[in-house]
Every structure is written in structure tokens, then in C-alpha cells.
Design goal:
Elements: E1 6-11, H1 16-30, E2 34-39, H2 49-52, H3 59-77, E3 81-84, H4 96-109, E4 113-116, H5 125-142, E5 160-164, E6 178-181, H6 186-193, H7 201-221, E7 229-234
Parallel strand pairs: 1-2, 1-4, 2-3, 4-5
Antiparallel strand pairs: 5-7, 6-7
Helix pairs in contact: 1-6, 3-6, 4-5
């Protein structure tokens, strides 16, 4: 298929893509894939607590700080095609216009893989909203119905949707079915994580998570060389001509 090198990542807040899928994104970039990233918000209202404690702080300044962090992190990962849509977070409102925006973006990118939030998150309603948003937009993007017309675009084939792992997996009904060995790109993910000083406490959490998942990956695969791994959950079952 012509689009096998196309990957689209859609995340709710500024740093989500780094914590949850930075190593995998770096692997795709390293291997020459066409990686597109949509960041829906700066996470200014719900994920910048320390910044809001500063006297005289403003929303505009927080967004500027987060933008600089995003620029540094995408540069570290090698992602050149990214957009910040600047939706309000906590809580995120998905209007008809915004549904059309993402549907159009999906058709333009024509991704083989879409990576986003899994369906449930016990502590972050924005993540659940975005998961539903991405799935519904992907359905509209593949629709050949005469009623789903977006100027300048044509329907695409069904992309493969994956939800990345957050830090409340066990109580959010997250069950990984895909493990990615990121041993060769963890140092890149680590560099990208360091860019988000606004949430630097998250770095240790996801470093520990990568080591824990590597332990599972070693046991499942029998490959003792795996030191770091990221996991994903499929939205749809695998379909093929053989078991893989």
C-alpha cells in the first residue's frame, strides 16, 4: 500500500505524544516514515499547575512557554510536520467544525497508522474526549457516502488505530496488545522528555514505565536485548492472512 509510511499522531495536550509514544515516534522518523503530529491544546488550564503559581502569570505567557517546549521536543524527535490547534483544555469541546477539521486532516495525511489516546482514562476527561474524537473522525474520513463531502479531499482506506499507554493503566481498563522495542531510541525520547520542564515530574514515571514494559517484552518475545519498550492498544482487531 502506498500509504504504509504515513503515520498520524493526535494528542490532547502539549506533552502527551512524548511521554506515551516518544520512542516509537523516533523509530518511525529514524526509519524514514512520514510522521504528522496534531497537538490539540497547550494543556494550559489543566497541566501547568506550577506555572500558574507564579505571580502575574497569564494564559498567553503559559502558551508561549509550552510552545517553546513543543518546538524543542519535536526537534529532538525529528518531527517536522506538526500543528498546534490551540483548543481549550479542561474541558475540551468537540464541535461539528472541529470534527470536520480532523476528518480533513486525516484524509490529507492518509495515514496507515493513527496513534492517539485509548478509550478510557480514569483521571483525564480530555483524553477520553480526544480518543472518541479521533475514532469518529477516522470513520468519517473513510466514508464513501455522498453525504460526507469535504472540499479538496477524497475518502481514504481504513487506517489502523492505536491507543498509547498512560500512567493509570490498571484502573483505566488499558490492556496492551502491542509492544514496541524502543531500546535504540529511548535516548531520543529521554531528550524530548527533558524539554517539558513544566511537567518534569512525569519523566521518571515514563522512564520507569519503559523499563517495566521492557521486562514484559523480554518475557513475551524471549529477546534479552530489550531494555525499554512502549505499549499500545488496538482499537480494531488485526486482520491478515496469517498469524503475526
Amino acid at each position: 500500500m502506498e500509504n504504509k509510511n504515513n503515520v498520524l499522531i493526535v494528542c490532547a495536550h502539549a506533552a502527551d505524544f512524548v511521554w506515551r509514544a516518544g520512542g516509537t515516534i523516533a523509530k518511525y522518523v529514524k526509519n524514514g516514515a512520514n510522521v504528522s503530529l496534531v497537538i490539540l491544546s497547550y494543556g494550559a488550564r489543566g497541566e501547568c499547575n506550577d506555572l500558574w503559581k507564579m505571580e502575574g502569570q497569564t494564559l498567553e505567557n503559559i502558551k508561549a512557554v509550552r510552545k517553546s517546549e513543543i518546538e524543542a521536543a519535536t526537534s529532538a524527535l525529528g518531527v517536522k510536520d506538526y500543528e498546534i490547534w490551540d483548543f481549550q483544555d479542561y474541558f475540551m469541546d468537540i464541535t461539528e467544525e472541529r470534527m470536520i477539521m480532523l476528518t480533513k486532516k486525516i484524509r490529507e495525511v492518509n495515514p496507515y497508522h493513527i496513534i492517539t489516546h485509548p478509550p478510557k482514562d480514569a483521571f483525564n476527561p480530555d483524553h477520553e474526549i480526544v480518543s472518541k474524537y479521533v475514532k469518529e473522525a477516522s470513520v468519517l474520513a473513510i466514508s464513501h457516502s455522498a453525504g460526507v463531502k469535504i472540499e479538496g479531499t477524497t475518502p481514504i482506506e481504513q487506517p489502523r488505530l492505536f491507543g498509547y499507554e498512560h500512567h493509570a493503566t490498571e484502573i483505566s481498563e488499558y490492556k496492551p496488545d502491542t509492544f514496541i522495542d524502543i531500546t535504540d531510541t529511548f535516548h531520543i525520547k529521554e531528550a524530548a522528555m527533558k524539554c517539558f520542564k513544566t511537567q518534569d515530574f512525569m519523566m521518571q514515571q515514563y522512564s520507569d514505565r519503559a523499563k517495566m514494559r521492557a521486562n514484559h517484552a523480554r518475557r513475551i518475545s524471549g529477546n534479552p536485548a530489550i531494555k525499554y519498550a512502549e505499549t499500545f492498544m488496538r482499537f480494531y482487531p488485526y486482520v491478515g492472512s496469517e498469524l503475526v
